[in-house]
Automatic annotation (TrEMBL):
Organism name: Sutcliffiella rhizosphaerae
Name of the featured protein: L-allo-threonine aldolase
Short name of one Pfam family: Beta_elim_lyase
Keyword Hydrolase: no
Superkingdom classification of source: Bacteria
SUPFAM superfamilies membership: PLP-dependent transferases
Principal EC category: lyase
Domain Aromatic amino acid beta-eliminating lyase/threonine aldolase stretches: 3-286
Cofactor: pyridoxal 5'-phosphate
Family: Belongs to the threonine aldolase family.
Cited Gene3D superfamilies: Aspartate Aminotransferase, domain 1, Type I PLP-dependent aspartate aminotransferase-like (Major domain)
Designated gene of the protein: ltaA
Entry coiled-coil feature ranges: none
Amino acid sequence: MIDLRSDTVTKPTLEMRKAAYDAEVGDDVYREDKTVLKLEETAAELLGKESALFVTSGTQGNQIAVLTHCRPGDEIILESESHIFYYESGAVAALAGVQTRTIQGKRGMMEPYDVEAAIRGEDQHFPETGLICLENTHNRAGGAVIPSANMKAIYEIASKYSVPVHLDGARLFNAAASKQSSIQSFTKYTDTVQVCLSKGLGAPIGSILAGPKPFIERARKWRKRLGGGLRQVGIIAAPGLVALTQMTDRLIEDHIHAKLLAENLHEMNGIQVVNQVETNIVVIDVKGLGLTAEEYISLLKEKGILAVTFGPSLVRFVTHFDVTEEDLLHTVKLMRTIN
Ligand SMILES: *Cc1c(COP(=O)(O)O)cnc(C)c1O
């Protein structure tokens, strides 16, 4: 099987498995797990934040951020196809008790003007704007990179109104790799950030939530409330450390592979590549073949290729370090036989 469903399907590398085996551990609820402490310290420094917290998943990191920033009844501003709104099972309503104010972006990018207009003024009828969430790269926009200039403009508006900004940076390292810029050229325009270790970076489990020290201390309490206070978790933090320190430089390969796939699909009958491929995601429309996304995906599966639906006629492919150029060329060859 060539698995292009997501960059979450990568298996831990040999080095990660060895790091897990050798990890120095302790009870992390007592903050005695040296490997977790090292991961959190390394992540905070890399992301340019005071402090960091190891969490079980990207969703948990985002939800803890919303819970820590907001009070029930607050309103959060976020892009209308953002992961926090679209793919987190309604958690912001179920857990934090906040309501969402969505803004339709262009390629995942919200206009600063629209964000400013959505911030609530003083009026007893209004909820309070508790948080602005950004996403970079933007998953449903096909892995689009949100330019740091856009983040800067929104961050300045947020500061003017004293509203905090949280960045869902599940694939932020892909944004940095694509722009050949530092991770901090993005994180400097957000108060808090979540990055996934378990996507393109290849760790088996885990995300990092980073931000100011007092924020992270309160976030730690929310993590505990959610059942995320773990014990000898250095076993999984150790692969995370390998992910963070050794796997970021190779992401560009995934981008080259995604572009290769897209170029080959552009000229294929009945298929339209709908996103501008900047990182590791390719989205195609199969309407021209007279098939639904579900039908197309089951035909692909019969040929040994896995992808996911992204809309009624949209199919998403994600490249990652477990797929080679050869796999992709083979994929293209098999896709040509579906018409
Ligand atoms: C995958 C993803 C998440 C959630 O990460 P999980 O570890 O799967 O919970 C959050 N935001 C974005 C943009 C993602 O792509």
